[in-house]
Please model this.
Amino acid sequence: MNDVANEIVMNMDKAEDILAQPEDVVAIRVDRKNKLAAALRLFGKFGFDEGVAGHITVRDPEHTDHFWVNPMGKSFKQMKVSDLVLVNHKGEVVEGEGLLNGAAFTIHSQIHMSDPSITAAAHSHSVYGKAFSSLGKTLAPLTQDACAFYEDHVLFDDFSGVVLDNSEGERIAAALDGRKAAILQNHGLLTVGETIDAAAWWYITLERSCQAQLLAEAAGTPKPIEHDVALGTRDTVGSALAGWFSFQPLYDVIIEEQPELLD
Model:
């Protein structure tokens, strides 16, 4: 990954340095909660909200069997750090006063429990994602951006209604199996990441890639990128570093535009 990163960022000596986090657990928690609130604001800004549907979670760095999540019924567009609630894997709200979305707990608790490397997960009912999900297929490598998901996402085609049963959450988590995203058939999109930054960015770019494919297929017969080229492109645009890096400009803009989200 270092060599690829250094080819893109010419004046960076060590790629891993940019992903360095504070050593203090309190500072890490503050950073994760700030990024979570910002990601929710960005989802609102981009129109990913649909009533009370949609949730993003980030694992607590100290209590790793707990995660922070947006409360049910609070608009993405109005989310603040102080609104976030801390939930354990039993479904108990241990900090915060907001309501806990049953579907959010069912899906995200199973994902966080299934893989300790998953720091964050994002799911919503954005328009292009849910439209694409109804086609019952995975994303094709039609563009450079779409290659981030080439052979690194899955179609979950077992829709059985609103996800309120732990068994379906377990099946979604099992279907991910180390991949960064899932297309939930007749439902929407789901992404995960080693950082909250990456999970949020994967969702944003997956939604846009679904939009691009829908437009391309409506206009004609798109030509996919060849297998070897798609894999090589994924190594660049689909790395954990690329996911983290791509979120930073969005974070800087939303913090400047809406600084009250950090309250």
About this structure: The longest strand covers residues 188-193.
